[in-house]
Amino acid sequence: MNDSVQPHSLALLGIGRIGIMHARILAAHPLVERLVLADVDPQRAAQTAAELGCESALVEVVLDPDNPLSLDGLVIATGTDTHADLLITAATIGLPTYCEKPIALDLEQALAAQRALEEARLPHHIGFQRRFDAGYTRARQLLEAGELGELRRFHALTCDPQPPADRFIPGSGGVFLDCNVHDFDILRWVTGREVVEVYATGSARGSKAFAENNDFSDSVAILTCDDGTVGSVHSSRYNGQGYEVRLDLMGTQGSANVGLDNRVPFRSVEDGVEFPPEAPWDDFIARFLPCYERELDHFLRNTMVGLPSACTAGDAVEALKIALACNKSRDEHRPVRISEIL
Ligand SMILES: NC(=O)c1ccc[n+]([C@@H]2O[C@H](COP(=O)([O-])OP(=O)(O)OC[C@H]3O[C@@H](n4cnc5c(N)ncnc54)[C@H](O)[C@@H]3O)[C@@H](O)[C@H]2O)c1
């Protein structure tokens, strides 16, 4: 924790589902002196700015290379198809940047953004909030301390209670890029292993938008890591009981789970077991709000002043490669090596 940081002047681009949440967190943060909201829909930015008592501006003004607003940081919460270009612009202006996941929709754009950030030596953070979750942090510590022995298998899942709006699906990159990329990132972070091969399958049920966009409503990916650890990563856009995120880790000396908390939307039907005791998680904001708060706090106190990033563009590129390998596996109905993703 860095306590000697001066308050910042920040702009937040993209006032949609997650942008509104980030705006609320930033507007209430003691290290944010000035917050400017911008969206390609200026009305949307102006309305949220009025609600939160902060400013709004046009996107072109925020991204003006002369920096007329004297900003010292940028938060990007726009649609995924804009992330790489906006990161390159931020590197050109020299604004330390927090950008939502995934870094881009394809590897070429992602590598271009990574190169621009590294060449400009720009402090940056890619938003993978699970790195700030107490459960995932404990799981990582257990593995590091050898308390599970040698990790042999895992099972991860991310399931939404209802699908996103149809309009969101075409630009999202599909479920592996949009949703399971969180599982891929956190698996690398918790286990310290690299994925070397995937086999992905699934089905497109419910909204026609899934089939029309070559996307899955429900999916399973089988992953193999560089040390032989194997596991599966599930997703669903129709997990009626609630928002569910889990990671099971099975080692030679013990097993551990992240996400089997009192609100997990998963009931036990065994005699004498009353689990879970509380109402299920509704959505990702309810489940992860404290993590988004910690992540933005880390950006303001550490990344923006040049301390090591908790999630670099390089990390985001590795998670993206696993998602892209899943897309290739889906399209070609075969196991795909990560080394094929070039
Ligand atoms: N970390 C997480 O858990 C998490 C959760 C949800 C979404 N996300 C990511 O956040 C991003 C946004 O998702 P969302 O669900 O909020 O989408 P959304 O469609 O609700 O909102 C995106 C907003 O960005 C605006 N916009 C688009 N292009 C812009 C540009 N060039 N400049 C300024 N504004 C622009 C749109 O008008 C819209 O208001 C996506 O990349 C998504 O993957 C991350």
Write the layout of secondary structure elements.
Blueprint: E1 8-13, H1 17-27, E2 32-38, H2 42-52, E3 55-56, H3 59-62, E4 73-76, H4 83-93, E5 97-100, H5 107-119, E6 124-127, H6 134-144, E7 151-159, H7 175-178, H8 181-191, E8 195-203, H9 208-212, E9 218-225, E10 230-236, E11 244-251, E12 255-258, H10 284-301, H11 313-332, E13 336-337
Parallel strand pairs: 1-2, 1-4, 2-3, 4-5, 5-6, 7-10
Antiparallel strand pairs: 7-11, 8-9, 8-13, 9-10, 11-12
Keywords: Oxidoreductase
InterPro entries: Gfo/Idh/MocA-like_OxRdtase_N (IPR000683), GFO_IDH_MocA-like_dom (IPR055170), NAD(P)-bd_dom_sf (IPR036291)
GO molecular function: nucleotide binding; oxidoreductase activity
Summarize the structure in words.
The chain is α/β, with parallel strands linked by helices. The chain has two domains: 8-128 and 290-311, Rossmann fold, CATH 3.40.50; 131-287 and 320-340, Dihydrodipicolinate Reductase, domain 2 (2-Layer Sandwich), CATH 3.30.360. The chain has helices spanning 17-27, 42-52, 59-62, 83-93, 107-119, 134-144, 175-178, 181-191, 208-212, 284-301, 313-332, and strands at residues 8-13, 32-38, 55-56, 73-76, 97-100, 124-127, 151-159, 195-203, 218-225, 230-236, 244-251, 255-258, 336-337. The strands form two sheets. The protein has a seven-stranded mixed beta sheet with strand order 12-11-7-10-9-8-13. It has a six-stranded parallel beta sheet with strand order 3-2-1-4-5-6, with helices on both faces. α4 (83-93) runs parallel beside α5 (107-119), α5 runs antiparallel to α11 and α8 packs across α11. The mean pLDDT is 97. Bound molecules: nicotinamide-adenine-dinucleotide (NAD). Nicotinamide-adenine-dinucleotide binds next to α1.
